[in-house]
Amino acid sequence: MTDVSAFLDRSGIPYERHDHAPVYTVEEALRHVPPLPGARLKNLFLCDRKGKRHFLVAVGFDKRVDLKSLARIMEVSHLRFGSPGRLREKLALEPGSVSLLAVVNDSGGAVEVVIDRGVWEQEAFQCHPLVNTSTLVIARNDMERFFTLTGHRPRFLDVPREG
């Protein structure tokens, strides 16, 4: 697994680091992560029915995603949550540490990045540095550079809300 902070430092990508108690859910993050600039994200690791395609989907922390509608928009027959084993295999992560920065471990480009269009309009983002005991704040233009350096081209979609 890549040390994402070292990768960002080597790449000249600035960030603010904030350490806190471990968080596994949005509710825990609201309790333990101090108020910070940038969009708070919810990151979903998904795959298609056959497990051939894998997706990292980032939405606002309070959005409940309609997976059925998202699958239609993405032209995938079915979307489901990827298992902890798939998460380890594809992104070298444990559940609770999923973040846009995880694609640093996806050198083969096996994971497709999808970002909610409304989220991408924000000026900065809060991201776990692949552990759930810290949060980094990274500006949008620096996230663009990060994706270029990791070989990922995000898709920006209006991710449908459940209900």
Task: Write out key terms for the chains shown.
eight-stranded mixed beta sheet; 163 residues; 26% strand; YbaK protein; single chain; alpha/beta; 28% helix
SSE topology sketch:
Blueprint: H1 4-10, E1 16-19, H2 26-32, E2 39-48, E3 54-60, H3 67-74, E4 79-81, H4 84-91, E5 111-116, H5 117-120, E6 124-127, E7 134-139, H6 140-150, E8 155-157
Parallel strand pairs: 2-6, 3-5, 5-8
Antiparallel strand pairs: 1-7, 2-3, 2-4, 6-7
Describe the structure.
The protein is an alpha/beta fold and 163 residues long. It has one domain (4-157): YbaK/aminoacyl-tRNA synthetase-associated domain (YbaK protein, Alpha-Beta Complex). The protein has six helices and eight strands. It has helices spanning 4-10, 26-32, 67-74, 84-91, 117-120, 140-150, and strands at residues 16-19, 39-48, 54-60, 79-81, 111-116, 124-127, 134-139, 155-157. Strands 1, 2, 3, 4, 5, 6, 7 and 8 form an eight-stranded mixed beta sheet that branches. It is globular, with a radius of gyration of 15 Å.
Number of domains: 1
Beta-strand content: 25-35%
Arithmetic mean pLDDT: 94
The CATH H-level homologous superfamily: YbaK/aminoacyl-tRNA synthetase-associated domain
Unreliable residue runs: none
User: Helix/strand-derived class?
Assistant: alpha/beta
CATH architecture: Alpha-Beta Complex
Distance between the termini: 37 Å
Morphology call: globular
Oligomer: single chain
